[in-house]
Amino acid sequence: MTEYDAADEPRAGARTTPRPDAETMLTPLSPSGPSVRALMVRKLADIVVLPNGKISSNERSLVADILLHVLDKVEEPIRMEVAQRVARVSECPPALVRMLLLDDAPVAEKIASRAEFLPEALLIEAAREGTMAHRMMIARRIDVSTSVADACLAHDEIDVCKLILKREECVLSPNAVNKMVALSAANKEVQGLLLRRRELEPAHGFIMFWWVDAERRRRILTRFALDRRVVQDALADLYPKVFRGGDNDAVVKDILVLSERRHRPRGAQGEPVSMEVVRKTLAAACKYPAQEIIDAVAMLGGISRELSGRILRDPGGEPYAVLCKSLGVPRDDFYAFLTGAAEGPEAAARADHLLAIFDSMARDFARAVLRYWDWDTNPRIAHITRLMSLLQSDINITDLGLSSFG
Question: CA-based Rg of the chain, rounded to a whole angstrom?
Fold first, then answer.
């Protein structure tokens, strides 16, 4: 037997240049037309796409099993041809559809874009096991369900996320929204698309507030305006029981503090603090947020030191407007804080912008926003925090001013 290098062996079904006969030195005729393997695949495809009256489901499955054995051994154009024909048949065995749907992108596209109906389970499996190209094809389909969207979003691919977010008819699951919020920290286009989604809730918006631009901050405060009176009225009789009656349930106490009707600034010993002290402290904080000023603002505002520092060091100033509104600072005093901290046309424009933010909020709403920002024990906020921790390799949390979310 003649020895040869295995690397020189032609691939099955491939065309090779005929070699002259060793004895006669005559070159045999080249085969013309499709190979016998391609002919067999086409004949089998003719059978598998027959209507129900012409073939039984068992016979169709048999033909599909034969195609499963041979399809990966023919050239891509043949596989594309089969996929295009199979896409028209709703009765085609799922195993064959799955193979074509997970094939190379040109083949999979024939199924993903042309098949009117594909089982949800099959789309989910293809989204999980395929490449980003497969997930983008699936995301463009009309019949993207919540479960299919979850599978497409599982790989945290920004391009796939943007396609799903544009599908307004597709309802996103709570976990998908949480993940999109975490991913939005590093992508402005995702931020814009996400803020249009009806699934977005106040907790999401107030977390995103820290990394969106000024216009989107304004939109968040406008969209998620809320009134806590319905909660305050429902829980009103619990305040004396918890704070004066000795029933010191820590969980209930936290919720009562969260939903308090009106915050009164207190000093280090819990004593009431005059508005004059509040004004002087906030004016100093606007000019130079040293650590002792940060601590003093945290005490007056009834918030954590971490949140106080994040508010006072935020370059936009919108969180500072929320803080001043929540503490009952008069409008003229707030504007004086801003104009006294900096001068010039840019400073004046910034002061006007922040004054508009200040005027747009009710005091109770500003207080609610502060509570959301300081609500690290909320399960949903804690979940988004964990998601962001997993993304720290791609997102620099410190640069985004979100150190307390880690």
Answer: 33
